Amino acid sequence: MTFDFDTPVDRRGTNSLKWDVGEGELPMWVADMDFAAAPAIREALGRRLDHGVFGYSVLPDAWYDAYIGWWKSRHGFTLEKDWLIFTTGVVPAVSSAVRKLTTPAEKVLLLTPTYNIFYNSILNNGRVPVEVPLVLSRAGGEPRYEIDYDALEEGLADKQVSMMIFCNPHNPVGRLWNAEEIAMVGALCEKHGVTVLSDEIHCDITEPDEGYIPFASVNEVCRRISVTCLAPTKAFNLAGLQTAAVFVPEPFLRHKMWRALNTDEVAEPNAFAADAAVAAFTEGAEWLDAMRSYVSENRKVVARFIEDEIPSLEYIPSKATYLLWISVSRLTDSADAFTEYLRRTTGLYLLPGSEYGLGGEGFVRMNIACPRAMLEDGLKRLKAGVEKWLNEH
Fold it and tell me: Do strands 348-349 and 144-146 pair parallel, antiparallel, or not at all (unpaired)?
């Protein structure tokens, strides 16, 4: 089957967060795709809609089977039904975990730059973020983010640090962590009595020849100390349907997480949540593979364009997510000022790296999950903005 990723979908006037922008502006900021969901998902939701009654819902066995089957076939990891807990979203799950698995004034460690909403979950619940910057290494010739394990252990050794939020794959830098890296993180966290909350929402959005490694799959230590957040929402563009899951292999930790989600009232599905997830994981593989190939080509288009047309910028290569991390440090020492200028003068809306914490300064994040013509429009605006900036500064 072939899928159309080139035809634009007009999202203005649909209460879209991403497209709640001015006329003529092009939003390439928040992490949702400008592609229609897979036909199988739309058909499943259509059948549910045609039923016409949308009362309280329970989770069918098919929901559990869909997650188990997908992780077994796509990622080579066998989940158990008892490990899985429904939740309305990964962000609610992260906030619940911070609230219920740590105590006020304790600290939560992050590898930065990282997803900005993690900070909200930490700070809004009276906890303290501990930032351990990733290292941008050029040892192999190509820029690549690495973990500074000495700095990580120093952070974990703080007795007030009780949780680490691990982003796997990493947003915004697009790193796929290998088994050795994950095992080292797990060993250090176990040594210092720190629970790992692994956000794996981007796990299915990788380069076509790349796969991700679930944190809990690496060894018994990682399995015992971790809570993992999963969802079909990023890979299948379903964020607005509020459907996700956590899995927790260790029984005592699982009970605490189950209580956390239930007492926060984020553990009950709406009338469409299960149907969407089941359709995605049982019928969406072909669409997903086509989408990954399309986004992969978009990534190549951006890399070539920046190299050939905007040498003042530097694209940092990545193998996961549809979010690109671009350095503007050759151009300016203020990515915040540049993104504001870019939006004002060209209409292109990107986010500055400072949104993502320590180490994000001097970078911008760009969402490339869009039709090719839209991407090319964004790149032309980016080039025009850089040229105007250089002429005026």
Answer: unpaired
Annotated domain spans of the chain: 26-39+285-392, 53-283
Q: What is the mean pLDDT of the chain?
A: 97
Evaluated on CA atoms 72, 193, 246, 366, the torsion sign reads negative
Which CATH class name applies to 26-39+285-392? Answer: alpha beta
**Token pair recorded at residue 371:** 């039709």
pTM of the model: 0.97
Per-run averaged pLDDT (10 residues), the chain, 393 residues: 95 96 97 97 98 96 98 98 98 98 98 98 98 93 94 98 98 98 98 98 97 97 98 97 98 98 97 98 98 98 98 97 98 97 98 97 98 98 98 92
* Distance spanning both ends of the chain, measured CA to CA: 50
Q: Are 175 and 120 in contact (CB under 8 A)?
A: no
- Whether the CB-CB separation of 213 and 203 falls below 8 Å is answered with no
**How far is the CA of 283 from the CAs of 37, 203, 279, 355, in angstroms?**
12, 18, 5, 36
Tokens of residue 30, six digits: 């928040």
> Dihedral, CA atoms, 335, 339, 345, 346, nearest 10 degrees?
120
Q: What is the pLDDT of residue 140?
A: 76
CATH number of 53-283: 3.40.640.10
Q: How far apart are CA 123 and CA 125, in angstroms?
A: 5
Tokens at 125, concatenated: 């619940």
Other C-beta atoms within 10 Å of 224: how many?
A: 15
Residue type for 63, please?
W
Largest CA distance in the chain: 61
